[in-house]
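Help wanted!
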Amino acid sequence: MLILCSCEVIPEGDRLIPVEEKTAGSRTHVLLEFTGFRCVNCPTAAETAQTLHEFYGKQLTVVALHPASNPFTQGKYDYTCPAADSIYQYMGGTASTPFPTGNIDLTPTDGQWFFAPAEWPSQVSRAMEDTVAPYLSLSTITDTVTREVTISALYDLSAESRLTFWLVEDSIPGAQAMPNGSVSLEYYHRHVLRAVSDEQTMLIPEECRIAHCSIIGLLIDNNNYHILNAYETKLDNSIRVSSMDD
Amino acid sequence: MLMKRNWIILLGCLLWTINTHALIVSVEGEGEIDELMELTITEAEEDPLTGDNIMEIKGNLLTSNPLTVSITRSSTGLTDEFCCAGQCTFGNRETTEELHLSPNGMASWYIHYTPQADSNESIEYRFDDGQSVLVLRVEFNYEAQGMENVEDTKSKAKSKKILQNGIIYIIQDERVYYL
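Answered by r_m:
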């Protein structure tokens, strides 16, 4: 039996749709959680991040970054991606930066980029005072065979900002040093950054499970790379089209 | 505060043998040692996260003051890690390094050593919280022996080794000897 399906073709001009007049939308902030599987305090920090995410709902997105240039990410397992390390180094992260650490909206506070987990609630609370943001919403179509995601965006793109997309995979089973000094081999790594792209199509890496992936669209200030707004959509919710010949 | 009184303590040395390995830990400081630290040592075993065969020394130190740790390593082969206030920092493997920590109570440090033939390594930490100073020196000597003059006074010792209250323990084959 021949099953022949194909991707729905979306004209390029329809994928990214700038809003002509500047429109205020509700703002989603991003908690960047820098973590590593050899870091004994990182599971506790991940719980803090998850608690904040559940408290603020869609107003707060959490992304866990495993930067290769910090030794806590190095060993028998690999949850790193080059983009995570680029972001980490841009923020001034080094091999001896204390872990876990975090940042809100890729924005320094009083010149400080990195904050200990104990400071995350106050940092997030402070960021939440800023509720107005350029409008942004996304939708995706995922081809489960070619593993290509096509992204459509409706957004307010001023001359001073640009749109970029982060691929995040949730609940990756794996190893983790635990606070009591033990090692868990059945730990679930949450919200792990897998790839970054400025293109409206992305290929999902083979090691990523599509049903656990999300695309986060980010409006970023061109001048200082601060995140102005974010929108997360799960690939599981997108229309899936399989294209294969059998 | 690291220590209250201004007297010099040579806590002594702690010898521990696994096969032909020996570990010597000496602690020098000023003040009351019971506020200072506890020290635990685990046998060399495979680290499931790195695959390396490592011996781990862990210590705790109590202070609420900002803490400066000056590190001198004999080589870049030793790895160490400092934890306080919910965060940990890896040593950068340089032969000399200075870390600035904010313990707000307790700081912990971990030293990881991979026993190897002909591998004699040492590492020295100088902890300074602005009020007192503690120097911890650890020597790893692959071929060292030297338990001949030690008298067994506690044959059923705990498997975890603790150095505290100014008492010097020498540990061999899971047995603790008091000096």
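OP: Thanks! One thing I noticed: Chain A has one domain: 15-240.
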